[in-house]
Inverse folding.
């Protein structure tokens, strides 16, 4: 007989005492008459004795120790942060492959830069010229290249990925000042008939453009040196120059 069943039988006996007040025989046991206070106490004890039985029916733990034991034996293991068999780290081949893709895209951005510089030098000889749209296309290109490089860096790629990201970040900032210079100083010069030369050195926006361009160039030098030294062993182009991207 289980402890819960025994508890239930005891509960029935005490509740019977509480209700009847004693003066009866149960299974050869004579229960004498009891005073009122004893009947109240019997009722309380009877209720307490019945609790384990009804908890067992409901499937609930009967004591703190039951909770600990149940948790220890049946609690599911904590879910993994990453699916089984997956990894956020890129293999060297995959990392260099993504950097190669970023460089190919950056080369297209360099072509846009060369075109804008050529159009800028032509001044008033161009009847229509929308430099801001061209700069925006350049910034969009370099922002995407930076995103690709940062993705490689954050996925355990080689340190040079961060160098490419920093180079693109400086380039985007530089292009921002170039855009302001084109829409202000250069535009006034062009609208005025292109007399002489548009102010460059000494113009705040132009000077910031040049300073940030130098930072971008330095970061590119570091990147190309590190990248070209290792790209060949993974089967990717390894002769990139600063003027290529």
């Amino acid at each position: 007989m289980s402890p819960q069943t025994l508890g239930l039988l005891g509960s029935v006996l005490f509740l019977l005492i509480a209700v009847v007040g004693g003066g009866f025989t149960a299974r050869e046991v004579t229960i004498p008459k009891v005073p009122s206070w004893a009947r109240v106490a019997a009722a309380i004890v009877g209720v307490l004795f019945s609790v384990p039985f009804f908890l067992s029916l409901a499937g609930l733990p009967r004591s703190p120790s039951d909770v600990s034991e149940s948790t220890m034996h049946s609690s599911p293991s904590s879910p993994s942060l990453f699916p089984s068999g997956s990894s956020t780290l890129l293999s060297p081949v995959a990392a260099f492959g993504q950097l190669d893709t970023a460089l190919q895209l950056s080369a297209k951005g360099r072509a846009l830069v060369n075109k804008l510089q050529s159009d800028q030098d032509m001044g008033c000889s161009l009847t229509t010229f929308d430099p801001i749209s061209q700069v925006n296309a350049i910034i969009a290109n370099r922002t995407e290249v930076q995103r690709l490089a940062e993705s490689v860096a954050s996925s355990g790629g080689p340190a040079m990925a961060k160098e490419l990201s920093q180079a693109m970040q400086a380039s985007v900032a530089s292009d921002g000042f170039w855009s302001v210079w084109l829409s202000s100083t250069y535009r006034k010069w062009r609208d005025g008939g292109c007399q002489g030369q548009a102010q460059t050195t000494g113009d705040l926006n132009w000077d910031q453009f040049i300073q940030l361009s130098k930072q971008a160039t330095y970061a590119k030098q570091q990147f190309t040196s590190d990248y070209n030294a290792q790209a060949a062993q993974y089967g990717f182009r390894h002769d990139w120059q600063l003027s290529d991207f």
Notes: Residues 160-191 form the longest helix (32 residues). Confidence is low (pLDDT under 50) at residues 60-86. Helices lie at 3-20, 36-58, 64-74, 92-122, 131-154, 160-191, 204-231.
